[in-house]
Amino acid sequence: MPPTNKLxxxxxxxxxxxxxxxxxxFRTQELDENLFMYFQKKRVLYAHDENKVCKLGDIVxxxxxxxxxxxxxxxEVVKVVFPLGDVIDPLTGKKSIGPIYEEHLDRRxxxxxxxxxxxxxxxDEQQKKISDN
Length: 133
Known about the structure:
- InterPro entries: NA-bd_OB-fold, Ribosomal_uS17, Ribosomal_uS17m_metazoa.
- Belongs to the universal ribosomal protein uS17 family.
- There is one protein chain.
- By secondary structure, this protein is an alpha+beta fold.
- 20% of the residues lie in helices and 38% in strands.
- It has 2 helices and 7 strands.
- The strands form 2 sheets. It has a 5-stranded mixed β-barrel with strand order 1-2-3-5-4.
- It is extended, with a radius of gyration of 20 Å.
């Protein structure tokens, strides 16, 4: 596997056993010299996460360290771009569940008189707790 000389990388956090570090998986395009076609290759980097802000499945931005800490840890976490389960449309800034905006789905369910379940029920309970305090 050729070395990756990436200064900034966006990838997904996957399971790791290292302390204060996260394993970030990302994909690159590599040219096959025989076919002259690009193919996706999966890459993995280890990044230092001192504050433990990353959770499994988060999309994070990492940058290369000025000096490599250990043989494995070569990058550090800059920020969590998208937390798992909290998908925000970059154009509108609205939360979405699948292809539908959360507020549209909420309005549609309530207008049909259906029982609110799942994530929307959880969201209502959280808002009720906040308003009670």
